[in-house]
Amino acid sequence: MQEVEMMPYILTSRLDDQAQNFFESMRNAYFPVGRNQVPAHLMLFHQLPYEPDTLSYMETIRSEVFAAEVTRLFFLGNGVAYAVESEQLNALHTTIKKHFHHVLIPQDLQGYRPHITVQNKVSPQTARDTMAMLLKDFEPFTMDILGMDLWRYLGGKWDWKAFYPFDKL
């Protein structure tokens, strides 16, 4: 386990309650028991520096609440996720990426493919079966992005630290 002072921040998008409840129920249904240690989430960054400057910078981000489209399901090899599309979400990610570019890990520097994982760490066949089942009833839908949540990574579990709300329309 990493030393506590070395454990980074994680940044996620805050979903509206209906979407959060939906994805949480999907995760609870399809994620392997014992491996589902964190809430359903739309990741922005896997590692931001654990330092006061990160908190200060997050306070400067301004946005209005915006819509994001859940457009399709996709196969992860050992799991299933819902793809999310939003120009505003991509712009937000780009803005934050530019600020932290010099300290980001390779995973956060690569192309941003927003998604919400509802199953992971299963056999490819189990994932294919889940995908086939979920595709039967899937219809694209819209959700609202209400702000950003900052978490502290604790070697598996996450500890919620702050919410940065967006302005209501």
UniProtKB/TrEMBL annotation:
It comes from the Bacteria. It comes from Pedobacter jeongneungensis. The keyword Ligase applies. It holds the Pfam family 2_5_RNA_ligase2. This is 2'-5' RNA ligase family protein. InterPro entries: Cyclic_Pdiesterase. SUPFAM superfamilies: LigT-like. Keywords: Ligase. GO terms for molecular function: ligase activity.
